[in-house]
């Protein structure tokens, strides 16, 4: 059987060792003769798993003690609504930094709950090259209850690597597609949120890291499922959580710690991305339209500038065991998502195929 490499943008591939452990424990977890999916979320064993996962995640990401970690449902889209419901206060409005599809979608949802201002922080030059042109908002940020941005736009492959300067304002970050991919200073953020299905685990669970002083100010009409104070007081269990997804996240955290933590993960990710971008830069057949300082480490977009060739590329790549390389419908082209779980051998296999395809179709 051909070696399969899954370049899906999400739900994405997970570490093989984690899936093998889950497979081995599926029918007999903790020697209970039952699956983790079949035990009470309030029982001793799952409560211990939840507490340990919180501890491991804090260790991985160096999360300060004055932050709560919530394991929630509803994906990042749920947080698009939860954030304004919880964080809009006396100032009555928020600032949204638009760098692409997902930051724009978050802003659109927030308008249902509060007044917002929106600033486009990218620019496309005459050659179609997209770059981030502004990250300093210290002159205006403090008139807002919070400033929201997306650290990595999964569709276009734009990553904002410099943390925006918002002075003393509250900075909120959607890190769904690059959480745990590299080290960050959590203390610079008021709130970080991420859907699990890229680097943390399977779809179905969402992690929120929120500074404690921001909890307890939700508007009265906020549903309890979205109220950070209610969830924090209930250890993220005001209802039955997605226990299997939580369990898999817990295994991923253990795996990453065993592999050397986020620092080691970041080194591997940078090496993978550098290898692929170096090939793209050397090619006249493929094109990437993101300025070098803003190229995503997680989502590498490219195109032949020919829709028929792009479709042929995706079809033949799939036959060669390189799955899910079709670009998002919003953008087209191709996209290689090389999250934490993607081994460097997968990137090498992709480059070898790209080179072969270019020679055969140039």
From TrEMBL:
One of its GO terms (molecular function) is O-phospho-L-serine:2-oxoglutarate aminotransferase activity. HAMAP family: SerC_aminotrans_5 (MF_00160). Belongs to the class-V pyridoxal-phosphate-dependent aminotransferase family. SerC subfamily. L-glutamate binds at residue 42. It comes from Haemophilus sputorum. The modification N6-(pyridoxal phosphate)lysine is found at residue 198. It is found in: Cytoplasm. Gene3D superfamilies: Aspartate Aminotransferase, domain 1, Type I PLP-dependent aspartate aminotransferase-like (Major domain). Its main location: cytoplasm. Coiled coil: none annotated. Signal peptide: none annotated. Pfam families: Aminotran_5. NCBIfam families: PRK05355.1, serC_1. Binds 1 pyridoxal phosphate per subunit. This is Phosphoserine aminotransferase.
């Amino acid at each position: 059987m051909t070696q399969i490499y899954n370049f899906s943008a999400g739900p994405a591939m997970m570490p093989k060792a984690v899936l093998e452990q889950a497979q081995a424990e599926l029918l007999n977890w903790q020697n209970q003769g039952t699956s983790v999916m079949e035990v009470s979320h309030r029982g001793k064993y799952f409560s211990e798993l939840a507490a340990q996962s919180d501890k491991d995640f804090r260790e991985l990401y160096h999360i300060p003690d004055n932050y709560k970690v919530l394991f929630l449902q509803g994906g990042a889209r749920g947080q698009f609504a939860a954030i304004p419901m919880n964080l809009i206060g006396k100032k009555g409005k928020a600032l949204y930094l638009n760098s692409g599809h997902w930051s724009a979608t978050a802003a659109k949802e927030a308008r249902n709950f509060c007044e917002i201002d929106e600033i486009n922080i990218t620019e496309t030059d005459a050659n179609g090259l997209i770059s981030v042109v502004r990250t300093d908002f210290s002159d205006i940020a403090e008139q807002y209850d919070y400033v929201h941005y997306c650290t990595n736009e999964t569709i276009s492959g734009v990553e904002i690597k410099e943390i925006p300067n918002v002075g003393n304002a509250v900075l909120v970050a959607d890190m769904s597609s690059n959480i745990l991919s590299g080290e960050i200073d959590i203390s610079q953020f008021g709130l970080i949120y991420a859907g699990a299905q890229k680097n943390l685990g399977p779809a179905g669970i969402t992690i929120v890291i929120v500074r404690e002083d921001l909890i307890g100010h939700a508007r009265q009409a906020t549903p309890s499922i979205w109220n950070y104070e209610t969830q924090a007081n209930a250890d993220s269990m005001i209802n039955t959580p997605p226990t299997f997804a939580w369990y898999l996240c817990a295994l991923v955290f253990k795996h990453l710690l065993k592999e050397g933590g986020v620092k080691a993960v970041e080194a591997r990710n940078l090496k993978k991305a550098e290898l692929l971008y170096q090939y793209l830069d050397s090619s006249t057949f493929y094109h990437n339209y993101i300025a070098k300082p803003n190229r995503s480490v997680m989502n590498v977009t490219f195109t032949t500038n020919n829709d028929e060739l792009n479709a042929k590329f995706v079809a033949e790549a799939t036959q060669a065991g390189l799955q899910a390389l079709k670009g998002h419908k919003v953008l087209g082209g191709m996209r290689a998502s090389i999250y934490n779980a993607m081994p460097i051998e997968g990137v090498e296999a992709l480059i070898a195929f790209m080179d072969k395809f270019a020679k055969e179709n140039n």
